[in-house]
Amino acid sequence: MEYIDLRSDTVSHPTPAMRAAMAQAAVGDDVYHDDPTVNQLEAEAAAKLGKEAAVFVTSGTQGNLCALLAHCQRGESIIIGDTSHIFRNEQGGMAQFGGLIPRTVPVQADATMRFSDLEEAINPDDEHKPVTRLVALENTHNMAGGVPISPEYTAEVGEFARRHGLILHIDGARIFNAAAAFAVDVKELVAAADSVTFCLSKGLCAPVGSVLAGNDAFIRRARRGRKALGGSLRQAGVLAAAGLIALHEMTDRLIEDHRNAQLLAEGLSEIPGLRIHSQHTNFIVFALAADIGLSLDEFVRLLWEKYNIRMSPYGGETGEIRLRTHYWIDQPAIAKTLSAVRAILS
Questions:
Q1: pTM (2 decimals)?
Q2: How many Cβ atoms sit within 10 Å of the Cβ of residue 136?
Q3: Fewer beta carbons within 10 Å, N or C terminal of the chain?
């Protein structure tokens, strides 16, 4: 059955080129570091980000946790946004596995954190306080609605971190979306970072995996964390092959997803009974008017049952629906979606 899935870009499935590459991939044993396709992915990813080395991990959550474990000692504190994915949606792994203490800072509407708040979050050199070790950014910022963070702000945070003897980690699950939004080389967005993760399995369409990058010594430590977390892989070249296609073919087309998101948001904004809350990169956030007599759950159910279109409520009591465009959402899919929404709300 063909259907349109706008729930997330995580639902994107491999392209035909990826499936062919996976079927033909040269493999070895990644634990012995002799899987040639994994080695190629790691080398090319590091070079693309302007870092010395990289390691292939099973997910962005695993990559972020490996980074924190490699950078920090138990009992140390990290400064992190209060709506960040690491803090809100990674099950407190930093505390469970690393004994790390989050110090949260309010995330602003533009996905930045105020420098006054960052400054206040640094603990003094006092034996009563945990040592503050790291500050983390998220780009693009998921819970802010896909807002990209600029190269200029990121560079300022990097300078702030160096001035205070802190490490800068970027959760760059969608860093290539941010690069597309600002029309800059991704290296410019992560130049100030000591480490960065990015996902292969969202807008880049690979079926599995993320990459963590940094300097050589850091990546050696991160590999130890990956092993402890059960993330060491064997013939992983069949997965890395899709990641290479993602790097070669998918990073430069993300602006198409952004344009399609804008087109979809513009169409939705013209439909009575809908309110667009935001549209950034490949994200759209909207709500139903209170007087239309239709709950979010009913709206979503009707879209699926009548038109084979998947959406899902998001945000709990805020009563929103968040959509994300991706490679498999083209302009005919957008037209069909707009027609279905009009029919349901008419």
A1: 0.96
A2: 28
A3: N
- Which DSSP string corresponds to 284-326? EEEEE-GGG---HHHHHHHHHHHH-EE--EESGGG-EEEEE--
Helix 175-182 and helix 254-269, axial crossing angle in degrees, nearest 10? 80
d(CA 232, CA 38): 12
> Over 90: is that where the pLDDT of 293 sits?
no
Burial class (CB in 10 A: 0-12, 13-18, 19+), 13: middle
What is the pLDDT averaged over residues 27-47? 97
Q: Return the DSSP state at 134.
A: E
> CA 63 to CA 16: how far, in whole Å?
27
Give the list of residues 6+ apart from residue 315 with CB closer than 8 angstroms, or none: 285, 322
User: 297-328, pLDDT tens digit by residue?
Assistant: 999 999 999 999 999 998 654 579 999 999 99
Residue 278 has phi, psi (to 5 degrees) of -165, 160
Report whether 243 contacts 224 (CB < 8 A).
no
> Can you read off the two tokens belonging to residue 175?
């860093």
Report the percent of the chain where pLDDT is more than 70.
Answer: 99
